[in-house]
Amino acid sequence: MSRTNSGWCKKTGTDRGKSANHKLYSHHHKKTMEVHHSHHHGQKKKIKEYFLEFLMLFIAVTLGFFAENLREKQIEQHREISYLKNVHEDLRLDFKRIDSVINTNANRLCILDTMYQSIKSNSLTNEDAYYYIRNLVLRATFESSHIGFDQIKSAGGFRMIKDDAITSGIQEYETLLNSLEKLENVRERTLEQARFKMSNVFKPEINYEMMKNQSGNGAIRFNRPQKADDILKTHPKEVDELFNTITVGLNTNNYLNSTLKNLKSTGMKLDEAILKKFGDEISGANKH
């Protein structure tokens, strides 16, 4: 019995060709898919690597920035503490000098008052005139210890000072120092005139004797001369001018002392603000 073409018959050449072409196509298609899949996978891998490298670089740069910023802040804080420690020490020295200048100014005002009591009672002698004039043309000046303030200015002003109470305290203190300097200049110009007038009235040998025998550095530095010429009679007008000029000059002592007291009060508030903020650090630095 002959087999039909239903599946038992042999494949024809055409059928075999089709089958071979189908296999070749399938094999080529599979290889092409594998190539495309491999290329796509490689791109994903490279993108991930680039992203990770970028992320690591970004983190490193960011951490470096924060570390540098932290280091700069630590350096600035160290400078702030160091400079304010110097301000604290400057203020302590200033307080002592303020007290000394106030006392000297007040003593000279008392001496001036004693001189006028002698004039009113007609008990003023020529020796007294030399004594009072020679001592009253002197002046006590306040010199602030300015190391810490100068360091702050040279470092860029108040940029590194973070505490408002300290900043405003320094500004107020320096404003009073400027006012004090102006008052001292006014007094100095007046007393300088008195010193010039004195050189026209005093006998040089008596002046030299007083200079040679001077002692101390307070309100009274010159002793009474043992014997003086009669300047109250020979130079009455010039002596009166001297007394008036000295009086005007020393009247500034009242304003100076008032300003000095304000300066000390402001300085003490500033010092309290510094110690409140950095007391432990300053105390630790002093121990070392």
Describe what this molecule looks like in 3D.
Residues 1-14 and 27-38 have low confidence and may be disordered. The chain has helices at 13-120, 126-136, 147-154, 164-201, 204-212, 231-234, 236-287. The protein is rod-shaped and about 115 Å long. It has one domain (69-287). The protein is built from 7 helices and no strands. The longest helix has 108 residues, at 13-120. Helices cover 80% and strands 0% of the residues. By secondary structure, the chain is an all-alpha fold.
Structural class: mainly alpha
Stretches where pLDDT is under 50 for at least 5 consecutive residues are: 1-14, 27-38
Q: What's the rounded overall pLDDT mean? A: 83
Helix count?
Answer: 7
| Proportion in β-strands | under 5%
3D shape: rod-shaped
Counted up, domains total: 1
Radius of gyration: 47 Å
Q: Determine the oligomeric state from the structure.
A: single chain
Helicity range: over 70%
- Number of β-strand runs: 0
Report the sheet with the most strands, covering strand number, pairing sense and barrel closure: none
Terminal CA distance reads 122 Å
What is the H/E string? Answer: HHHHHHH
Q: Summed up, what is this model?
A:
By secondary structure, the chain is mainly α. It contains 7 helices and no strands.
